[in-house]
Amino acid sequence: MKLLSGLPVCAALVPLVFAQTELPPIPADLTTPVQQRLAFNGPMSMRIGWSTFQQLEQPTVYFGESPHAIFRSASSQSSTTYPTSRTWSNTVTLTMLKPYTTYYYKIVSTNSTIGSFKTARPAGDHTPFTMAGVVDMGVFGPDGLSTRQMSYTGKAIVNSLNPGDHTTIQALAATASQYEFILHPGDFAYADAWLSELNLGYINGTQAQGPQIYEGLLEQFLLRLTYLYTRYAGSKAYMVTAGNHESNCLNGKSPGEASCPIGQTNFTGFINRYAELMPETPSTILGHRPRFDTGLEGVYMKARAAAASTSGALPPFWYSFDYGMVHYLMFDTETDFGNGIIAPDEVGGGAADSDGPFGSYMNQQIDFIERDLAAVDRSVTPWVIAAGHRPWYVDSGACTTCQEAFEPLLIKHGVDVAYFGHVHNMQRLGPLANNTKDPRGYNNPSAPVYLVNGAAGHFEGLDLMTTPDQLPNYGIEWANNGTLYGYNLFKFLDRNHLEIQFVSSKDGDVLNSVTLFKKH
């Protein structure tokens, strides 16, 4: 089945083209909203984020149920930046909305247009729906994944695009009517690949220009993403958590994080754009967020962590939300494992980084997950999906400390599906618990089904599996071994049936599909 059947690659779907290593142009009106972002904040609230090339005194959004009647307004004091950023991130929360209703909105600027979004389904709504999942997605075009051929030493394989292929962003935009929102658990833009691209001669510039190149790649990714969604597909909520490539400007590569400027360490750019956008943010307690000019992102996150003492949630790293018949847990596989376990991106964690921890105490994330999953009412949200970045069931590169920290909780509370990326190919594993396959397979297993799909596409291409002849030994039941880019569709058919599809971005082919039955 082709989800893109009959849809040509037309000019309207070709990404914006920027000259190599050049920053996207600055609009004449510095209040022009760019890099727009949307997130659910419960069924009766929505958060809108965007960037501008000057600080806004009072970011404001007008909205309403008709494009001709956007008379309601919401404002905030949230307009923040960090030293290497050219832009300020703005966030506004819209409240007193109707569940699952289309609204139209206009960001206040002399150079903005009317957009739209649909609010979340309320918890307990068991109407069938589809969600899209994507992980490990970077820049497409001259400065990232493109039709250019190259050889990248140290990678098993690099796959350039073929002429006429849809990128994953294009495929998601073209098929936006087929799903209701997007889940992206980590790795955005791959701006930290700038030095590799520079050393390979893939982009022009000097190492001294690294901070500008990094920000340029990040801007390009966010601009392409929002350009396609807001112009061609209608706006979709985009729910995120962190991956390793958000951590700093080099992510474990020589000469190391210590050489990164302030503003490109400790998840600063990710925090700046998404901390107040994801749900359950205690921004009303903390008030205006500081400019990150002295490494204050860690201080800010710890203050937020302390303010979130009731639930323990700390967006955008760990939090949860409900949508219809599903409870979603977003968790952080990069920092804050608790119980004395060193996380990968922390000092001594194996990634040669020094990021986090962000919790106000050692076990904040683990305690949050325990409380959150224990509180799920399966009569209201029968399905529970957990999404993080680094997998522990995978053919290579398994995160064993992640397994030690999180798997006991996922098993204890009956999580149905665990969704990951990090490894740059597609793998579907059967239900697994404590390294053992559930004998019931997809027929009412007690163990979570594990999915790995880090194949959305970016400069580094795809990964070959290290032992493709031994996939059953890892519990892998289907895989695409580093040949295609793609994403997932999760079709919640009813309280007992979930269809999971792996979709090829280039042409919309459904590469693999399985239906999970759970007797909730």
From TrEMBL:
Tell me any Pfam family this protein matches.
Metallophos
Q: Where is the Calcineurin-like phosphoesterase domain?
A: 177-425
Q: Where is the Purple acid phosphatase N-terminal domain?
A: 33-119
What EC class does the entry list? hydrolase
Which reactions is this enzyme annotated as catalysing? Answer: a phosphate monoester + H2O = an alcohol + phosphate
Q: Classify the source by domain of life.
A: Eukaryota
Concerning InterPro entries, the annotation shows:
Calcineurin-like_PHP, FN3_dom, Metallo-depent_PP-like, MPP_PAP, PAPs-like, PAPs_C, PAPs_N, Purple_acid_Pase-like_N
Annotated Purple acid phosphatase C-terminal domain ranges read: 447-512
Q: Which GO terms describe its molecular function?
A: acid phosphatase activity; metal ion binding
Supply the alphabetized keyword list.
Answer: Glycoprotein, Hydrolase, Signal
What residue range is the signal peptide? 1-19
Gene3D superfamilies referenced in this protein's UniProt entry, alphabetically: 3.60.21.10, Purple acid phosphatase-like, N-terminal
Report the EC number(s), separated by commas if there are several: 3.1.3.2
Q: Which family does it belong to?
A: Belongs to the metallophosphoesterase superfamily. Purple acid phosphatase family.
Q: Which PANTHER family match?
A: ACID PHOSPHATASE RELATED (PTHR22953), PURPLE ACID PHOSPHATASE (PTHR22953:SF153)
Q: What is this protein called?
A: Purple acid phosphatase
